[in-house]
Amino acid sequence: MATAEKIRFERVTKTFTVRDTEQKGAMKEFTAVKELDFNVKEGEFVTLVGPSGCGKSTLLDLLGGLTTPTRGRILIDGKEITGPGLDRGTVFQQYALFPWKTARGNIEFGLEAKGVPKHERKEQANHFLSLVGLSDFGERYPHELSGGMKQRVAIARSLAFNPDVLLMDEPFAALDAQTRESLQSELLRIWQKTKKTIIFITHGIDEAVYLGERVVVLTPNPGMVKKIVDIPLKNRLEDADIRSHPDFVKARHEVWSLLHEAEYLGANI
Amino acid sequence: MVTIEKHVSSAPKLIKQKEFGFSGLQKVAKQSIVLVALFLLWEIAPRIGLVDPAFFPSFSNVVIAWWNLVISGELFTHFLASITRSVSGFGLAVLIAIPLGLIIGWYPLARELLNPVMELFRNTAALALLPVFMLLLGIGETSKIAIVLFACTWPILLNTIAAVGNVDPLLIKSARSMNISSFKLFLKVILPASVPTIFTGIRMAGTGAILVLIAAEMVGAKEGLGYLITYSQYNFQIPEMYAGILTIALLGVLINQSLSMLERKFSKWKQNPNGQN
Ligand SMILES: Nc1ncnc2c1ncn2[C@@H]1O[C@H](COP(=O)(O)OP(=O)(O)OP(=O)(O)O)[C@@H](O)[C@H]1O
Ligand SMILES: [Mg+2]
User: Fold this and answer.
1) What is the ipTM of this complex?
2) How far away is chain B from the Cα of A133, in angstroms, using its nearest Cα?
3) Could you tell me which Pfam families the record lists for this protein (chain A) (predicted)?
């Protein structure tokens, strides 16, 4: 596995200007994430957990170049992020598929943005449709797909334009347990095959431990890195019952304990 | 939050399909029964002296008068005059209001600047301005096309502006994350997302076009369906007058139906039985 540094957070803080509830008409600063300072290695799978509202999506928007840090900076391959780019692919919390485009059309959208010629787009779209198990659903519109299928189209869309880094915001949150588990192993398989760097946000402690090589635990508002937990699991895909493995149980417990310390009391995890 | 969707299993679907033929017939019957009764009443009432046949001729007499107007080619002349005017005014409105609405919707400053003017104009009944149009543009074709254009512009313009403003921000975010240019964003996301709402405006405009035109033709014109009605009334050709009214009603239904169909076609992807995207 490559060990080169891919992403570097340098004391990243993001504040929003919000209405002051105490003073009518007045505005105040609200710190969403504070002093984030950590690295992600190339080809690494990092999961991020933290209570609702702690700034996970904010962090991902910053990585995606959709917003800029108030203080600090984020580097990718040593270069500061200044805007969106096709080196990063985002799977948003709520699918964000274009409802007027078919599954195939949605996948081709990113390819078109990248400037892939038309005849190649079709071929690649086919490839990614089959990768996520939706070969027969290419001509369906999003409203004709189930939640899990939509999620898979969104993942295929982000994979299709071949970004180095995949940013995923609770992509499996809305799915039932079975679909989630099968998509989780699918994602691991894709990751192993494509060697992409993946930043994956989740509410699920199990999911975080199962997928991540490292789990970044964030504090409630403002979001700061509380601890980064190493997950020493090797053969996640081969071991059918990895979730009962002592290492898994131990790591799971550690993350759980971190999230249940006093400062989280009352926070909605 | 998204919930697990319930798929309709195939069994109930089959049953539904089987029923369709019967329930389809039932639907047609339900929808036409009152209409048929109305025409019957129209036929009988003048015959039994419930109303004066001179002012309210029976349905069959009106149909005969209508048929004679068709054969003589007179109806077609008037029909053509009306349809040409309304299509010209309507078409111009589409050509002007959609691009204008897209621009105004896209630039918040333009929207803020123009909002008061648009509020004022759209709340001014087009017909109230008819005298102004006639004073400025005469009683020829120009004034009639202009008033149709005026009436059609507002629903299309306002719907287009609203459409652009209401595009799901998440979709914009999603497209921006793929690093596409503002122009592409507009073309590939804003525009397609706006189409259904724009079409609602177009349908509203289509209905308004006929309404305003007929009124304008009744006030000052040498041909057209509105003119046919007033002219027949002055010359006491009462069945012909009703024939004209009937034609307008049919035309209105036809236009509304076809525009509704187009609207449905373009907003097919909006159909969302699960209430989620
Ligand atoms: N544009 C904005 N303006 C003002 N406040 C914002 C904005 N975006 C996010 N916030 C605030 O920043 C905080 C973090 O939001 P964020 O969406 O990142 O949370 P999250 O960790 O993704 O939560 P969840 O797990 O519920 O998705 C929240 O308190 C939110 O209210
Ligand atoms: Mg979030």
Assistant:
1) 0.86
2) 19
3) ABC_tran
